[in-house]
Amino acid sequence: MGCHCGRARRAARRIGNGRGPCRLLSPPAALGADARGGAATILGPMASPSKAYHLTTFGCQMNEHDSERMKGMLESLGYGEADSRDQAELILFNTCSIREKADNRLAGHLGEAKRLKSEDPDKVIGVGGCWSQSMKERVFEQFPFVDVAFGPGQVHRLAEFLTSDSITAQGYFEFEGFTGHLPMRRARDFQAWIQISVGCNCKCAYCIVPSTRGREVSRPAAELVAEARRLAADGVREVTLLGQNVNSYGRDLPSSAKASFAELLAMVDAVEGIDRIRYTSPHPKDMREDVIRAHAELESVCEHIHLPLQAGSSRVLKAMRRTYDRGRYMDRVAMIRDVLPDVALTTDIIVGFPGETEAEFCETLEVAEQVAYDSAFTFVFSPRRETTAAELADPVAHDVKRERMQRLVEVVQRRAAERSQRFVGRRMEVLVEGRSRNDPDRLRGRTRHNKTVNFTGPGEAGEMVWVDIESATSTTLAGHADAADEPAIPGRLVERQLT
Ligand code: 5AD
Ligand code: SF4
């Protein structure tokens, strides 16, 4: 059972929803099974219509997914989304603690929330997510105007808080379960995330996730397949399986329900209507041949693998506690390229881990040069609370780290631009996402390789179209769709080289 660590942190002040006497509901009372016999929804009668919320999300896809759940939950409670914070009775932040920049940005946003609350004390301010989890009760010490704080495992507790007439600030920080059972408001009707696990059993020295999201817990495969079926019936064509370490999925499941990540991919692939399966993030140590082969053998599994490198030097990888060295990483890459020569490979790289020497950094450059990633997320190391790397002496000056970052970005972009040229002259299946951001006369979509394509021609959001690729940069492709063409039939097997 989770903690009710609500404390009377301030003079009693009503921040409830004004619907009568106190009813602090336990989750089973607040949540009920929906008519489709699986997902739960918040029961209607508690809804307090015409209230508005504003939610700001920081961080990774896992957080964006949690925010979709939060929005779905709030809307079933009768809240509508406000365009700006000053129009909202409920101001929420779903926080990240992976990078210092996000912390700093959060402080600025919270400052605005504080000002709005001083003008209208009835506003409720909530802070969820990883940063909140890492701070726990200190959220209230640092930001005494916050009314409710909760970690990533307690999104449903927000509903409990809002439907109670609690007059004290509340903090909920113990992992209690997945948000999978909560209603969701998807950003796009045809794409969805499926959270397959939470937490992480690795002990990477720089990473805060094990302390914020706890040990790895997998959801049973049958539940995930049922969710994929529901989503497909609801018009979803592309799913992204989410977890901190997706490919160690299933190891914690009881033997009666054991399934490996590759087996899970096959089960989701068999769901009628799901045309594209993506996943993020795998750990190189768990990137086994069966998963790599799944990309070749299963029609829906996309031609994209995100394989976080973090550093090219074996000494730094050891200090990071990544449990693989440069050689083993490169072996993985070789196996991937052997089975899937055309696959898009992307990565995460940290520059300036404490004590990283110039020679060690050059090893990262060498790996980036050799692998030729299709793209990379690059981070300057930043010390995080409760991580072992935060305790390490760090003699490398910040300017040196910045300069290393520039050199790395230059290599990544140059190699990505070169590798991108393989798409020019091909007719590719593109899932249309909407209008191009820079040119409203063009459409924007994504290939199975996860490349953004801007193109002219017919197409509606959610449709698959064939696009003839005419040019490519390190980040985007450009081309045109022919009005006379049949819509694309999902699946790479029909993709062909133009003559
Ligand atoms: N400093 C810099 N980058 C980090 N990442 C995780 N923790 C840190 C940190 N303390 C990066 C890693 C990870 C990605 C999601 O964020 O590269 O893969
Ligand atoms: Fe996501 Fe990690 Fe940030 Fe948490 S700390 S929101 S898991 S990136």
| Domain tally | 3
Low-confidence parts: 1-49
The CATH superfamily of the largest domain bears the name tm_1862 like domain
Spatial order of strands in the largest sheet = 4-3-5-6-7-8
Instruction: Tell me the β content.
Output: 15-25%
In CATH, the topology of the largest domain is named pyruvate-formate lyase- activating enzyme
| Total number of strands | 22
Summarize the structure.
With 499 residues, the protein is α/β, with parallel strands linked by helices. Helices cover 31% and strands 21% of the residues. The protein folds into three domains: 48-172, 3-Layer(aba) Sandwich (Rossmann fold), CATH 3.40.50; 185-421, pyruvate-formate lyase- activating enzyme, CATH 3.80.30; 424-497, Beta Barrel (OB fold (Dihydrolipoamide Acetyltransferase, E2P)).
Provide a descriptive summary of the structure in words.
By secondary structure, the protein is of the alpha/beta class. The protein has three domains: 48-172, Rossmann fold, CATH 3.40.50; 185-421, tm_1862 like domain (pyruvate-formate lyase- activating enzyme), CATH 3.80.30; 424-497, Nucleic acid-binding proteins (OB fold (Dihydrolipoamide Acetyltransferase, E2P)), CATH 2.40.50.140. It is built from 14 helices and 22 strands. Strand 1 and strand 2 form a beta hairpin. The chain is globular, with a radius of gyration of 24 Å. Mean pLDDT is 83; it is low at 1-49. The structure holds 5'-deoxyadenosine and iron/sulfur cluster (SF4). Residues 98-99, 206-207, 308, 310, 348, 350, 379, 381-382, 384 line the site of 5'-deoxyadenosine.
